[in-house]
Design goal:
Blueprint lengths: L14 E6 L2 E6 L4 H6 L6 E2 L6 E2 L12 E4 L4 E3 L10 E3 L14
Parallel strand pairs: 1-7
Antiparallel strand pairs: 1-2, 3-4, 5-6, 5-7
């Protein structure tokens, strides 16, 4: 699957697996979740207000547009949270178990 972000001239960074909405994806050492997610898919997350998919905005933790959830229900900012091996991230409301994503 192609993503919104494209890696250019990458050399020597270790890659590892994360899980995005139940599907395996690769992240590179030093990636934030936003980079890892957007190199694997076109959008970052569903909007909790029902207005479609979101892609983040400010990339510095101020705008609140990049919230995603871990599989255990922890809410994290994708733009400032480092990707870690084995992370399981929920970006789609339909994939979330009850109690993981706010239901409005």
């Amino acid at each position: 699957m192609s993503g919104r972000f494209v890696r250019v001239a990458e050399h020597g960074r270790r890659t590892f697996e994360i899980v995005i909405d139940g599907r395996r994806a690769l992240a590179s050492e030093g990636d934030t979740l936003m980079v890892a997610l957007l190199t694997s898919q076109e959008a970052l997350r569903d909007s909790e207000f029902g207005d479609g998919r979101r892609a983040g905005f400010c990339v510095m933790g101020a705008c609140q547009d990049c919230w995603v959830w871990t599989a255990d229900g922890e809410r994290v900012r994708a733009c400032t949270t480092p990707a870690a091996e084995g992370m399981s991230i929920i970006t789609r409301l339909a994939q979330a178990q009850e109690g993981v994503w706010p239901r409005l």
